[in-house]
Amino acid sequence: EDQVTQSPEALRLQEGESSSLNCSYTVSGLRGLFWYRQDPGKGPEFLFTLYSAGEEKEKERLKATLTKKESFLHITAPKPEDSATYLCAVQGVGDSSYKLIFGSGTRLLVRP
Amino acid sequence: KAGVTQTPRYLIKTRGQQVTLSCSPISGHRSVSWYQQTPGQGLQFLFEYFSETQRNKGNFPGRFSGRQFSNSRSEMNVSTLELGDSALYLCASSFGTGMNSPLHFGNGTRLTVT
Prior knowledge:
The complex is a heterodimer of chains A (112) and B (114). Chain A has 112 residues and is mainly beta. Chain A is built from no helices and eleven strands. Chain A is globular. With 114 residues, chain B is mainly β. Helices cover 0% and strands 53% of the residues of chain B. Chain B is built from no helices and eleven strands. In chain B, strands 2, 4, 5, 6, 9, 10 and 11 form a seven-stranded mixed beta sheet that branches. In chain B, strands 1-3-8-7 form a four-stranded antiparallel beta sheet, with no helix packed on it. In chain B, strand 5 (42-50) and strand 6 form a beta hairpin. In chain B, 37% of the residues are buried. Classes of the chains: A mainly beta (112), B mainly beta (114). The A-B interface holds A 31-32, 34, 36, 41-46, 49, 51, 87, 89, 91, 98-100, 102-105 and B 4, 6, 33, 42-43, 45, 48, 55-56, 58, 90, 92, 97, 99-100, 102-108.
């Protein structure tokens, strides 16, 4: 069964303190891995799609990387406005290829 | 370009009632998916529609149903509401269903069942 596990559940950082969020996945063939950001009271906002091991994508202070078993979301010199819940999701090629399987998210708090 | 629009933003219903939620996708997007988000289960897939046809359905009871109109707008209906149906219902649209068509979500409808 396709599965996504995110760690840590919650992360507190000081402004400027870089760190990484982890997304481990089990899927029978990866069609795509997606990162989303969700602010309180809002829907998930699309950040990145990664398709194959070794791929990297960057956007401002965020960089997503992918291996055969996990993805990392690296946050460089974060600012308070980066505080949000970050969700990872996978789309496999098997019977459940029509839907995204989401992890439970990492709640990030960046203090000034 | 306008994003995915969901109405209403908030709903309070009592057990046994039914509810209809509405979703307008991004212009040009033909695929609409619905997800339920709860603190305990996270985001769970409900249905996917493409060109007015339900292509896939998640593991939810038959009380949950939906449809898509010719202009790609979609509605979902929940009948005989239960307390456990309280959740954030998210609609997402994409241009197609291929690898290069990520889902773009609306801000959801927060349903509270009392």
